[in-house]
Amino acid sequence: MTIPPAAKHSVLGPLCVAARLSAIVLASLALMPLQWLFMRVHRGRAAFVLPRWWFACLRRALSIRVILEGTPRDTGGTLFVGNHVSHFDIVVLGSLLRARFIAKNDMERWPGMRPVGELAQTLYISRRRTDAATVAASVAAQMRDDHDLVLFAEGTTSSGERVAPFKSSLFSLFMGERAAGDAWTLQPFTLEIQSVDGCPVSAGGDRDGYAFHGEMDAGEHVRRFLRSSGAVVRVTFHAPMAIPADIDRKTLAMQLHRTVASGLAGSPALAGTAERAGA
Q1: How far apart are CA 237 and CA 177, in angstroms?
Q2: Which regions span the lipid bilayer (predicted)?
């Protein structure tokens, strides 16, 4: 007798959630104390090895498979700039990069985020215009030119169908005389949902099973994802680029936006690439 898919989810769902949560707890108990001890003596690039392992364990526990295109820089002094689809993006990118995240300060109030953010050296910032000067000073004081940083330049999450305009305010910290130490290198990236719970989004799969946006409830969204079979996400790392000496931050933001948007399926840039490949 064949068991309907809905019945399988109802029977196996709680067991799947319990198994995933157990794997996350075990990985955290094994790696987080080691990271805490390591950071007492070192906060350089080596301090991102254990967080990367931890994020990799989480990604495996959550059954998020990554299709990787391009090669991320791993030499320090890189600002990775891209789109933001879900809180799970941090797990995906954290498993691929040895980098610090720039995140909104309201995430710091989420359960468990404060210790995780501290061990991953996350930079929490306010997105309010009135706090712009304070945020710039705080970020500048914490930046190190041997670190890599990840900036979700839209300033919020989306459904992932398109890339929202980039907010340019933080780019000035990495340009000209305000940049700390050596010149920063930019590397744009594009996150794209391929499938959720075994169904490709191009064939009607529910992209909101992974994407978190609008008025969604974070807790319910996580619980829903834990009950699913996971997701497939394509991560495209575009060619690194130096920051032109004569460019302003708004022009730079628009240039990066075009590059990131070109990585989404159906974009003119990708369509042209597909046509050339097939010729």
Answers
A1: 27
A2: 12-38
Q: Which helix (H) or strand (E) holds 150?
A: strand 149-152
User: Average pLDDT in the 231-248 region?
Assistant: 94
Q: What predicted TM-score, i.e. pTM, was given to this entire model? A: 0.87
Q: Are 189 and 257 in contact (CB under 8 A)?
A: no
Gap between the Cα atoms of 149 and 146, Å rounded: 10
Residues 174-196 have pLDDT tens digits of 886 555 556 889 999 999 999 99
DSSP state of 243: P
Instruction: Say if residues 157 and 77 touch (Cβ distance below 8 Å).
Output: no
Using an 8 Å Cβ cutoff, are 24 and 43 in contact?
Answer: no
DSSP assignment, residue 261?
A: H
Q: Facing residues of 265 across strands?
A: none
| Helix, strand, or coil (residue 78) | strand
Q: Which residues contact 44 (CB under 8 A, 6 or more apart)?
A: 144, 146, 147
Q: What is the pLDDT of residue 64?
A: 98
- 225 HSE (CA, 13 A, CB side): 26
Domain spans of the chain, in order of start: 5-278
Which whole-number Å values give the CA distances from 172 to 57, 132, 251, 266, in the listed order? 35, 12, 11, 31
Residues in Cβ contact with 145 at an 8 Å cutoff, skipping those fewer than 6 apart: 76, 77, 180, 181, 182, 184
Residue 201 in contact with residue 193, Cβ under 8 Å?
yes
